[in-house]
Design goal:
Blueprint (H helix, E strand, L loop, with lengths): L1 E6 L9 H4 L6 E2 L2 E2 H11 L4 E6 L3 H8 L4 E4 L8 H6 L9 E5 L2 E3 L1 H9 L4 E6 L9 E5 L2 E6 L9 E9 L1 H17 L5 H10 L5 E4 L5 E3 L3 H7 L3
Parallel strand pairs: 1-4, 1-6, 4-5, 8-12
Antiparallel strand pairs: 2-3, 6-11, 7-13, 8-11, 9-10, 9-11
Helix pairs in contact: 6-7
């Protein structure tokens, strides 16, 4: 199994902090966010880690050196995480875990994600509904919808930025990425998952419930992360 860390974006919601430093290299309690992610992945036996870089990609490569493998996505200013993942499609043939580069989490979360046998497993938190993040709607223990379009009164929780795909799931994901790329490049990774749900694919969810995680989008999130 491999891990794909999406770290190509400019993180404009963290301006002006991210003007000088990519978000994944920001420190929380003396340790960089991406180092925490790499450490957690290796603790559960995942050593094949690919970091997809874009904005200040050479800085990330210099800082991490040989800790991981890299893929450089150059069109990050005009596109989003759909295109970032699409750019590494040739590497997605086996089971893999996909992480956004701005989420901190308990090791137990990534351990349980790895153990999922589902073709599609999205990691969610139903303990609260957060603003400014991707909502989910659950029905009969499975995802019925995912995205910002879900009305607040129908939202069951939030996607936290971690997903796992089996080899079969990866193949279907690539097919859907390809289908969308032919007709609409103005979309995102979550819309692809929502499309798969609408087509009848069973997308399961691992609910972290009260396990610790924090998604770092705004300067205030960095402050909150200091007690993580």
């Amino acid at each position: 199994m491999k891990a794909i860390i999406l770290a190509a974006g400019k993180s404009t919601r963290l301006y002006p902090i991210s003007l000088e430093q990519p978000k994944c290299l920001m420190e929380v309690n003396g340790k960089r966010i991406i180092d925490r992610q790499i450490e957690a992945l290796r603790m559960i036996g995942i050593d094949d880690i690919v970091v997809v870089v874009g904005y200040k990609g050479e800085v990330i490569k210099k800082e991490l050196q040989g800790k991981v493998r890299y893929w450089h996505y150059y069109d990050y200013e005009k596109t989003n995480n759909f295109h970032t993942l699409w750019s590494v499609r040739d590497s997605l043939h086996d089971d893999f875990i996909c992480l956004f580069s701005d989420v901190l989490f308990d090791v137990e979360i990534i351990k349980m994600t790895r153990e999922s046998t589902a073709d599609f497993c999205m990691v969610i938190d139903t303990s609260k509904v957060l603003n400014d993040t991707m909502g989910v709607k659950m029905e009969n223990g499975k995802l019925a919808n995912i995205g910002t379009h879900i009305p607040e009164n129908e939202t069951s929780g939030n996607f936290i930025g971690i997903a796992k795909f089996s080899a079969i799931g990866a193949k279907k994901l690539i097919e859907e990425l390809h289908n969308i790329a032919k007709i609409n490049l103005d979309t995102n990774f979550i819309r692809v998952i929502d499309n798969l749900i609408k087509k009848g694919e069973i997308v399961t969810a691992y609910d972290i419930k009260n396990a610790s995680f924090i998604d770092i989008d705004f300067p205030v999130d960095l402050e909150k992360a200091e007690i993580f």
